[in-house]
């Protein structure tokens, strides 16, 4: 049953909540997202996902316990997988690398399927050009989780305008900059310096260390994309 609002103010908050939900759905994966221990996901996928950056280098639980999480995980790690399981795991791996839930991921897939060319490559391109991914690739931070937060909290400007939508898609020619007032933030400064010590920037991006900025030169080819997955398996999973 829907509660009838008692007064105008309550009506307004209910309306705002509804609008927020609709909006979140549109921008994709804002409301529900995994908040558990990230390296548990490394164990689940059997590969380091670098969701928190450094953590996977120094204290990833996968190094200590090479088994699937859960009571019966031990025997399942090396077991032969069914075709379906292989496809599903590949999809989950990619989805978790981006950190979005199934619905927006599926939405991206459907967009990709409608575009010309290879669906798998289109999908990777859609995900690769997300603002949160580009923020990380440009070296503003080494972790995806932090990159997403930086965008959400409005620290990142695209072509001079604040964009706080992680799924925002960048285009060739776009400039991505750390907001002027955020440049004094010691954390952001440290991250920038840390990542730029040995940053291997993909050739489709350009980073300007002098002023905390980066540029998208062109769209990446498949070889220049950062996701080590077999996208064909994901296409097969969804095309059944
Ligand atoms: Zn890890």
CATH architecture descriptor of the domain at 131-219: Roll
**What would CATH call the homologous superfamily of the domain at 131-219?**
RNA-binding S4 domain
**Radius of gyration, whole Å:** 20 Å
The main sheet orders its strands as 2-1-3-5-4
Poorly predicted tracts of residues: none
End-to-end distance, in Å? 38 Å
Proportion of helical residues: 40-55%
Give the averaged pLDDT, no decimals: 87
Which band does the percent of strand residues land in?
Answer: 5-15%
Cα shape: globular
Query: How many helix segments?
Result: 12
Summarize the helix and strand pattern as letters: HHHHHHHHHHEEEHEEH
Largest sheet: 5 strands, antiparallel
Do you know the CATH topology of the domain at 131-219?
A: Structural Genomics Hypothetical 15.5 Kd Protein In mrcA-pckA Intergenic Region, Chain A
Distinct compounds present: zinc ion
Question: What's the CATH class of the domain at 131-219, please?
Answer: Alpha Beta
Structural classification: alpha+beta
Tell how many strands the DSSP assignment holds: 5
Topology:
Elements: H1 8-27, H2 38-45, H3 54-58, H4 61-64, H5 73-76, H6 83-98, H7 102-114, H8 119-128, H9 131-137, H10 144-152, E1 156-158, E2 161-162, E3 175-178, H11 186-197, E4 205-208, E5 213-216, H12 231-238
Helix pairs in contact: 6-12, 7-8, 8-12, 9-10
Bound molecules: zinc ion.
The site of zinc ion has 7 residues, from helix 2 and helix 3.
């Amino acid at each position: 049953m829907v509660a009838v609002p008692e007064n105008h103010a309550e009506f307004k908050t209910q309306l705002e909540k509804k609008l927020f939900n609709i909006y979140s759905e549109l921008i994709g994966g804002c409301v529900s997202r995994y908040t558990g221990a990230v390296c548990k996901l490394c164990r689940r996928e059997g590969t380091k996902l670098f969701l928190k950056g450094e953590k996977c280098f120094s204290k990833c639980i996968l190094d200590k316990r090479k088994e699937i999480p859960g009571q019966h995980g031990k025997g399942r790690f090396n077991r032969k997988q069914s075709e379906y399981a292989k496809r599903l795991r590949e999809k989950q791996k990619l989805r978790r690398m981006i950190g979005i839930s199934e619905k927006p991921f599926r939405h991206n897939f459907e967009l990709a399927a409608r575009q010309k060319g290879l669906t798998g490559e289109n999908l990777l391109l859609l995900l690769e050009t997300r603002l949160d991914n580009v923020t990380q690739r440009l070296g503003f931070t080494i972790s995806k989780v932090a990159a997403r937060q930086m965008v959400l909290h409005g620290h990142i400007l695209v072509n001079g305008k604040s964009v706080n939508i992680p799924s925002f898609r960048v285009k060739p020619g776009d400039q991505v900059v750390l907001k002027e007032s955020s440049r004094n933030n010691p954390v952001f400064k440290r991250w920038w310096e840390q990542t730029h010590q040995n940053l291997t920037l993909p050739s489709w991006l350009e980073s300007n260390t002098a002023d905390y900025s980066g540029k998208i030169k062109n769209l990446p080819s498949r070889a220049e994309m950062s996701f080590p997955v077999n996208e064909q398996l994901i296409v097969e999973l969804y095309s059944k």
